[in-house]
Amino acid sequence: MKLWGGRFEKSTDKSVDDFNSSIRFDCRMYKQDILGSIAHAKMLGKCKIISEEDSLLIQNTLREILKDIEEGHVDFEIDAEDIHMNVEKILISRIGDVGKRLHTGRSRNDQVALDIRMYLRDEVIEIKKILAELERTLIEIAKKNIDTILPGYTHLQRAQPITFAHHMMAYFQMFKRDIERLDDCYVRINIMPLGSGALASTTYPLDRYMVAEELGFDGITENSLDAVSDRDFAIELSACLSILMMHLSRFSEEIILWSSHEFGFIELDDAYSTGSSIMPQKKNPDVAELVRGKAGRVYGDLMALLSVMKSLPLAYNKDMQEDKEAIFDAVDTVKMCVPVFTKMIKTMKVKKENMFRAAQGGFTNATDIADYLVKKGIPFRNAHEIIGKMVLYCIENNKAIDELDMSEFKSFSELIAEDVYEEISLSKCVSGRNLPGGPAKESVMASIENGLKFLSKL
């Protein structure tokens, strides 16, 4: 007999039970569901809506059920539909009619809204922890490569010399914003909806603030319709995770490029690479490729959530059951990707000589010699034109800029003197960019220090 079956004369068809049931995926919220029910039962007793004796019996039995579930002694039933009904059915089987008092003043609509908020706030905390470990790894790599020069790119063309530390700290900033977005999202997740009922609250004198305090919420929802009928907090989290995966995907793309023979900037550890079934020489960056691919999966979860919610009238609709698999998948995918990605970059070998050699090619110091002329009094646009012609000359003669002799330099401008060689050396090109946020050693060290301060507050 269904716990809601009083109005029905027929049993639900088995195919409908299977179709309607969400226990196969919402069972993961068993802890949140039981903790929410314990807080609700405690409040019912305190407010004298049920007797204190019944309240205590319900609370203690729910704790026993939680222990039994965690020890693997409970099998959930599909015909009980969801985690809420499964737990309540087990409760009633153990303490009879007293267990039927638990649902007083509550609907599955506000109950599921409570459970998903509690579950997601726990997951946000976990994701922040694994992101913090990634951030610490980036700082470790940066510290070891403060003086490692490589070409920076625009349009995937060599542009200006920077350091590998500067490059790593660029990703540090991206993931730092991801953490900040999660913090901001947490604020909107951590609002307590219980007491909203099915849509119009209840006539029982519930103490919603007590339940919120018991469960560690920052406040309560202010509109019962809104509380049960929106999932924007889940959509927002999915958007945050999509941005995070976008950052991981971009980083993965660079790992894939850098580990190729054409770049040769890094070598991935054998433990984080795979081989080919036919080509014995291959060492493939499959971890990075999978992370890059899984970004699209998380984007799909976001689109699924937006699509489910886009045309729903207030208040609750069964469509909203589709929210869980999407947000659960987004969370699971991120929690799978970040740790293995962190270990992959932590163990990779940085080929400093190859990076420096690449920075020597591609005229990455062209801007610096233009700046050199500007400091001699030539307007920048004129200097830009002069150096453009110099680069063309170098290409035609298969030379780098710093390989030109003084007579060749002076054929482009009489203002060029012997000090030009020092000014356009790669080390000077990097060290001269010592503005806050630049690639110079002192600037990157300051960025690392700021990063450590940020992590210490997490």
From TrEMBL:
A single GO molecular function term of this UniProt record: argininosuccinate lyase activity
Species this protein is from: Acetivibrio mesophilus
Locations listed in the record: Cytoplasm
Main location: cytoplasm
Reaction(s) catalysed (UniProt annotation): 2-(N(omega)-L-arginino)succinate = fumarate + L-arginine
Keywords, in A-Z order: Amino-acid biosynthesis, Arginine biosynthesis, Cytoplasm, Lyase
Biological-process GO terms, alphabetical: L-arginine biosynthetic process via ornithine
Source organism, top-level taxon: Bacteria
Family: Belongs to the lyase 1 family. Argininosuccinate lyase subfamily.
Name used for this protein in its record: Argininosuccinate lyase
EC number: 4.3.2.1
Record-linked Gene3D superfamilies: Fumarase/aspartase (C-terminal domain) (1.10.40.30), Fumarase/aspartase (Central domain) (1.20.200.10), Fumarase/aspartase (N-terminal domain) (1.10.275.10)
One GO cellular component term noted in the UniProt record for this chain: cytosol
PROSITE patterns tied to this protein: FUMARATE_LYASES (PS00163)
Domain Fumarate lyase N-terminal positions: 6-300
Domain Argininosuccinate lyase C-terminal, first and last residues per copy: 363-430
Signal peptide positions (record): none
Enzyme type, top EC level: lyase
